[in-house]
């Protein structure tokens, strides 16, 4: 943890240098510019709290950072799922993920660990330091701390799902800290912190939605419902009690949305899922914020390899493309699989706005920005400011449908939430009476695979369910032994967890052993 934690914890605290020397005006020379930030002058006014919180939000963008040639960190969770493959095969680390032969040296694994603990470290600073700022409006203080706890909880939620028992760090650290070389805490303890943080965020006075992109009540409640849903499944296996918690929490969001459909709802069209003008609104409960003035949208590895779909001409990498089997698994007539109308495209316009041409295969359209790249007869802005969805209302509905079905079988409310997803896809849904608890369970799972694909969600479903969608049978296989059609490799027991980064094991002997099945140090 040495490199991960210390390097980033105090980067905002800049110490001034006192200038001394045997010359006149010594007192003048020893004065420090009032704009310099020191450990004692930062976290003293409300603006410092806002700036520190902004750094936590900024650190979330590690997901879009590069991971070698033609690859980004976000591909970690897509390559493992088996729903995508590559047209380039020029990145050995990405190839190892697709081939399920990744280890503690794989760049994406290392970058995710470092990125998540950077978010945690920055959030810990806010949570620890902001309470001492005086004077500061109490409501503003509570809100900032609540947002930081939401972000910390979300980072720990990702980390515990990826690695299992992990270091649980809740205070800012220095080399002199007692837990500078932390031990791994149990999954139970990590989940307790996650629930406590999200519960605190829920009570922090956040608005239901926030068009600025900051954390909001709908996102917090949906994230908490998702945490409960995950705790109900593997590896904690808490079962019925936590399915009930998940259903109840998701229902709070649905109830508000039903009463305020212009505030929270499903978008009318799939185009709105990847339109700049709809960011942080309606269906987008929480997103990673991108603007080319700071950081442009990082999803261009979804562009097809060397096909001129943008203003850049034939320049895409195609390092993440749908497998034909997954694309073909959509039901006939599913709008989500229709060219340019749903989440895929099979044709586009030369250089973004020229003559239409056939791509020769389906590609992911869900993160494609027409405003930036161009569309029929309209040149692109060349500024890809599209945000990346993290929590959509579509997922809230599917969480409720799954959890409520586990609690009480196929109730009308669970069926209605599930059917709303299918209605937008223009699919015919059998009547409620046609479903048993078992058949509705798998129907909801299929909708999660088809609705939430390529949003860094599918892998976590595979781990919590210990089940994987089989594109050929339209059913579900056990996780262990399932063949990922992206590589024709079988998932093994060890793949339920990622390996700890090898350098972390070398730096911190308190981490003890590597996760089972992976080579140690």
TrEMBL record:
<dbReference type="InterPro" id="IPR011990">
    <property type="entry name" value="TPR-like_helical_dom_sf"/>
</dbReference>
<comment type="similarity">
    <text>Belongs to the SusD family.</text>
</comment>
<feature type="domain" description="SusD-like N-terminal">
    <location>
        <begin position="27"/>
        <end position="229"/>
    </location>
</feature>
<keyword id="KW-0472">Membrane</keyword>
<dbReference type="Pfam" id="PF07980">
    <property type="entry name" value="SusD_RagB"/>
</dbReference>
<dbReference type="InterPro" id="IPR033985">
    <property type="entry name" value="SusD-like_N"/>
</dbReference>
<keyword id="KW-0998">Cell outer membrane</keyword>
<protein>
    <submittedName>
        <fullName>RagB/SusD family nutrient uptake outer membrane protein</fullName>
    </submittedName>
</protein>
<dbReference type="InterPro" id="IPR012944">
    <property type="entry name" value="SusD_RagB_dom"/>
</dbReference>
<dbReference type="GO" id="GO:0009279">
    <property type="term" value="C:cell outer membrane"/>
</dbReference>
<dbReference type="Pfam" id="PF14322">
    <property type="entry name" value="SusD-like_3"/>
</dbReference>
<keyword id="KW-0732">Signal</keyword>
<feature type="domain" description="RagB/SusD">
    <location>
        <begin position="344"/>
        <end position="518"/>
    </location>
</feature>
């Amino acid at each position: 943890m040495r490199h991960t934690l210390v390097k980033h914890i105090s980067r905002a605290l800049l110490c001034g240098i006192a200038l001394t020397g045997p010359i006149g005006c010594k007192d003048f020379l020893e004065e420090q510019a009032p704009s310099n930030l020191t450990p004692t002058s930062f976290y003293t006014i409300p603006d410092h709290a806002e700036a520190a919180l902004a750094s936590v939000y900024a650190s979330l963008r590690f997901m879009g950072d590069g991971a070698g040639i033609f690859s980004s960190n976000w591909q970690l969770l897509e390559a493992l799922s088996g729903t995508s493959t590559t047209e380039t095969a020029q990145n050995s680390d990405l190839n190892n993920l697709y081939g399920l032969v990744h280890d503690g040296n794989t760049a994406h694994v290392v970058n995710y660990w470092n990125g998540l603990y950077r978010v945690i470290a920055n959030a810990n600073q806010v949570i620890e330091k902001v309470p001492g700022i005086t004077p500061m409006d109490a409501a503003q203080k509570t809100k900032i701390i609540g947002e930081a706890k939401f972000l910390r909880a979300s980072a720990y939620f990702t980390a515990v799902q990826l690695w299992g028992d992990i270091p649980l760090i809740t205070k800012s650290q220095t080399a002199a800290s007692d837990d500078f070389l932390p031990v791994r805490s149990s999954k139970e303890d990590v989940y307790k912190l996650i629930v406590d943080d999200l519960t605190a965020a829920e009570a922090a006075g956040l608005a239901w939605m926030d068009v600025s992109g900051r954390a909001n009540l709908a996102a917090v409640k949906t994230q908490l419902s998702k945490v409960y849903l995950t705790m109900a499944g593997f590896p904690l296996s808490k079962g019925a009690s936590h399915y009930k918690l998940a259903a109840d929490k998701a229902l709070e969001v649905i109830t508000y949305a039903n009463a305020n459909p212009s505030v929270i709802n499903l978008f009318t069209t799939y185009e709105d899922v990847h339109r700049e003008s709809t960011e942080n609104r309606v269906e987008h409960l929480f997103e990673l914020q991108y603007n080319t003035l700071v950081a442009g949208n990082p999803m261009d590895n979804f562009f097809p390899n060397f096909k001129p779909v943008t203003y850049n001409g034939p320049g895409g990498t195609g390092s993440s493309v749908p497998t034909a089997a997954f694309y073909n698994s959509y039901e006939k007539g599913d709008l989500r699989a229709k060219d340019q109308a749903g989440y895929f495209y099979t044709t586009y316009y030369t250089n973004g706005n020229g003559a239409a041409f056939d791509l020769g295969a389906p590609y992911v359209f869900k993160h494609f920005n027409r405003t930036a790249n161009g569309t029929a007869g309209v040149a692109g802005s060349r500024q890809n400011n599209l945000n990346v969805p993290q929590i959509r209302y579509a997922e809230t509905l599917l969480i409720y449908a799954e959890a409520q079905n586990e609690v009480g079988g196929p109730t009308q409310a669970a069926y209605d939430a599930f059917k709303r997803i299918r209605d937008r896809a223009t699919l015919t849904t059998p009547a409620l009476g046609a479903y048993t608890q078992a058949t509705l369970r798998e129907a909801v799972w299929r909708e999660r695979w088809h609705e939430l694909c390529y949003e860094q969600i599918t892998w976590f479903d595979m781990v919590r369910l210990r089940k994987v969608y089989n594109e050929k049978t339209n059913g579900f296989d056990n996780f262990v032994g399932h063949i990922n059609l992206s590589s024709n490799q079988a998932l093994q027991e060890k793949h339920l967890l990622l390996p700890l980064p090898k350098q972390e094991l070398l730096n911190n002997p308190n981490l003890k052993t590597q996760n089972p099945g992976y080579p140690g140090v």
